[in-house]
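User: Design a sequence. Structure:
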């Protein structure tokens, strides 16, 4: 989850009303059907140029003109609201994957079945993220997820093998804790980042967002409580973003960390840091690690211009070809969503092996709850805060969070 999916409450409430008016509207580009407008949230380098290059390559191959607008991720939904109300939505719109179902529910997106697009061969989790009430509304070029990074030198000094189970994680973290160095770091912040980081532990253990008061969910939360209570993880995890966690790891203040592959360029920039990664540990050996899918999807708004929508569909198809997925995956340390590309991708990007394996079984955050996911995410990070600050037991935290 490189980009925050937090959306202001006012925007959420206003969204269905604002977007409902866009059906039959006009595109922001107007006029020539061969001129397509695109809006995405990669406004910072190097992603801005990487995404821009593949858009330009596709435009050239299709003999169309693309006018691209980039906005900060935190401002995207508000921008879409404004464009919906003025009927100036772009022809192609990038959305963070947890937002697609909520926006599709308003009627503001075009079903891909109307445009001849499908998600054949893509990881099921990302298909679920782009699907609402049986209709596909988005295609993803690549995805990201979470894994466990470890400092090779620190583990080797203690003769520790990278942990694969919770018990091994607790044992290793305790052994690696010394002075101002903690064994493990993770983000338990009171935002969607905290919920996102908890999901691999909850889902792998059989917990489910449709019943957050289950024993399986409580057991996953107890693991985090145990790590903090034992001093193997800092009690500051309740304030750390994923970027903060990375900083702790780079500084040698955490021997292991839960984080995503978007941090790899920063890790590789540290010449003295030797790191490795494995999938997030499971409770019991033999369980399949299940982590959440991060990443964006390309969608096509309902602009009312059929000719432009046809060209928009061609552009989205080009932006999600095998070649484009592999190119973006290798450039951006993200994983192609077509599972058939995994072997070629890992051969070129061996440091991404754990993440590529993880994506095959990863899940969409909105796959079960759809547009109701934000409420569950809020309850998750609230419960985490209650438990890690000693205000509630792991067994009671979710019930208290729901009541609150």
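Assistant: Done.
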């Amino acid at each position: 989850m490189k980009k925050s999916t937090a959306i202001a409450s006012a925007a959420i409430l206003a969204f269905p009303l604002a977007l409902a008016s866009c059906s039959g509207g006009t595109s922001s580009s107007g006029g020539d059907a061969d001129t397509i407008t695109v809006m995405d949230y990669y406004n910072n380098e190097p992603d801005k140029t990487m995404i821009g290059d593949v858009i330009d390559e596709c435009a050239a191959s299709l003999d169309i003109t693309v006018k691209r607008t980039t906005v900060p991720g935190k401002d995207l939904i508000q921008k879409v609201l404004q464009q919906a109300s003025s009927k100036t939505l772009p022809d192609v719109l990038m959305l963070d994957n947890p937002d697609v179902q909520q926006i599709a529910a308003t009627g503001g997106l075009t079903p891909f079945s109307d445009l001849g697009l499908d998600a054949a061969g893509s990881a099921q989790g990302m298909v679920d993220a782009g699907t609402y009430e049986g209709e596909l509304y988005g295609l993803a070029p690549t995805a990201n997820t979470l894994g466990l990074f470890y400092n090779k030198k620190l583990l080797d000094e203690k003769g520790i093998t990278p942990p694969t189970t919770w018990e091994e994680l607790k044992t290793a973290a305790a052994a690696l804790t010394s002075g101002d160095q903690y064994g493990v770091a993770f983000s338990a912040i009171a935002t969607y980042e905290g919920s996102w980081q908890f999901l691999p532990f909850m889902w792998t253990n059989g917990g489910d967002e449709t019943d957050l008061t289950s024993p399986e969910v409580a057991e996953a939360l107890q693991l985090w409580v145990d790590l903090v209570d034992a001093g193997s993880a800092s009690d500051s995890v309740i304030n750390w973003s994923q970027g903060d966690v990375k900083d702790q790891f780079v500084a040698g203040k955490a021997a292991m960390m839960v984080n995503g592959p978007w941090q790899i360029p920063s890790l590789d920039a540290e010449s003295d840091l030797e790191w490795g990664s494995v999938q997030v540990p499971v409770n019991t050996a033999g369980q399949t690690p299940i982590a959440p899918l991060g990443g964006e999807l390309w969608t096509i708004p309902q602009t009312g211009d059929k000719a432009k929508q046809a060209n928009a569909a061609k552009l989205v198809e080009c932006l999600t070809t095998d070649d484009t997925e592999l190119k973006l995956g290798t450039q951006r340390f993200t994983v192609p969503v077509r599972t058939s590309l995994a072997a070629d991708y890992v051969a070129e990007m061996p440091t991404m092996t754990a993440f590529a394996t993880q994506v095959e079984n990863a899940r969409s955050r909105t796959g079960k709850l759809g547009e109701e996911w934000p409420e569950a995410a809020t309850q998750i990070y609230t419960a985490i805060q209650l438990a890690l600050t000693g205000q509630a037991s792991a067994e009671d935290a979710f019930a208290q969070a729901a009541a609150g």
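The mean pLDDT is 91. The radius of gyration is 21 Å.
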